[in-house]
Amino acid sequence: MLKEIKHLFFDLDNTLWDTDRNSKLTLQKMYQEKNIEEKYSLNFSDFYCNYYHRNENLWALYRENKITKQNILDRRFTLTFKEYGIEDREIQDYFNENFLKKMTENNYLIDGAEETLKYLKEKNYSLHIVSNGFKEQTYRKVNDTAIKNFISTITSGEEINKRKPAPEVFHLGLSKANAKAEESVFIGDDWESDIIGSSKIGMQAIYFDYNHKNENLNKGFQVIQKLNELISIL
Predict the structure, then answer these.
(1) Which of 32, 43, 63, 154, CA to CA, is 20 to 30 A from 84?
(2) CA 27, 62, 114 angle in degrees (round to 5)?
(3) CA–CA distances in Å: residue 57 to residues 51, 181, 185, 227
(4) How do 7-10 and 126-131 pair as beta strands?
(5) pLDDT tens digits, residue range 35-55?
(6) Residue 122, Cβ neighbours under 10 Å: how many?
(7) Distance (Å, whole) CA 132 – CA 197
(8) What is the DSSP string of 20-86?
(9) How far apart are CA 76 and CA 61, in angstroms?
(10) 28: burial class by Cβ within 10 Å (0-12, 13-18, 19+)?
(11) Euclidean distance between CA atoms 182 and 179, whole angstroms
């Protein structure tokens, strides 16, 4: 059990909110609405695999301040469709303009999220979100789900045009929570952004290996593969 801890800070996407599942369900429905498989003989699984890796790469560049939010919005679908020779601007614009709006219609949480947050709240920890996600979507993902019943503060790096692992993002979260780094733990699924970033400013950190890749073991940080493992740690 970690000592002298009052505040728990969570990443949101793929730590509490099941981004991969919600994104895939949203895209599958949009794909069907536009009859893309029938029109272009392109099955959804191939499209999604291509999109997923491109989106991950774009977000990595965004965290490194090499591209902007608008670059992500403009490129991830347009370039994926173009790779398959689909130049239909109406289809590209439909996905570019509607994906974020539609994604929060699916609000699945990571398995064990609600029960774990409930337990931790009852243990008198103060719970917070610090995310690299876009501000509007971050707030919606929290406020449209059971997460809102347990979280005291929400911070998006977009508020200050910074991304984790930038220390300014963590300091903003600490400031909102009126918390000190040494009395705080950060829990997240991204090794560099969440674990290395938070530890560099003096927070303790727990790595959530939610994809069960068995990565980053024996590196001096606690590792969990199910969110409810926090119940036996905290």
Answers:
(1) 63
(2) 55
(3) 10, 30, 28, 26
(4) parallel
(5) 999 999 999 999 999 999 999
(6) 9
(7) 12
(8) HHHHHHHHHHHHHHTTHHHHH---HHHHHHHHHHHHHHHHHHHHTTSS-HHHHHHHHHHHHHHHTT-
(9) 12
(10) middle
(11) 9
Contact, 193 vs 132, CB < 8 A?
Answer: yes
Listed residue (112, 168, 106, 115) closest to 137, CA to CA: 106
Rg of the chain over all Cα atoms, to the nearest angstrom: 18
214-223 residue pLDDT tens = 777 778 899 9
Structure tokens at 90: 């109406």
Residue 217's identity, in one-letter code, is L
Q: How far apart are CA 99 and CA 43, in angstroms?
A: 19
- At 190 the pLDDT is 94
Say if residue 165 is exposed, middle or buried (CB neighbours under 10 Å; 0-12, 13-18, 19+).
buried
Please provide residue 9's backbone torsions phi and psi, each rounded to the nearest 5 degrees: -110, 130
Flag whether the pTM goes above 0.85.
yes
C-alpha–C-alpha distance, residues 48 and 30, integer Å: 12
**Three-class secondary structure of residue 194 per DSSP:** helix
Joined tokens for residue 153:
């503060």
Q: Give whole-number Cα distances, 64 to 28, 165, 216, in Å.
A: 30, 9, 21
Tokens at residue 233, please?
């740690």
Contact 54, 154 (CB under 8 A): no
Tokens 């570019």 locate to 96
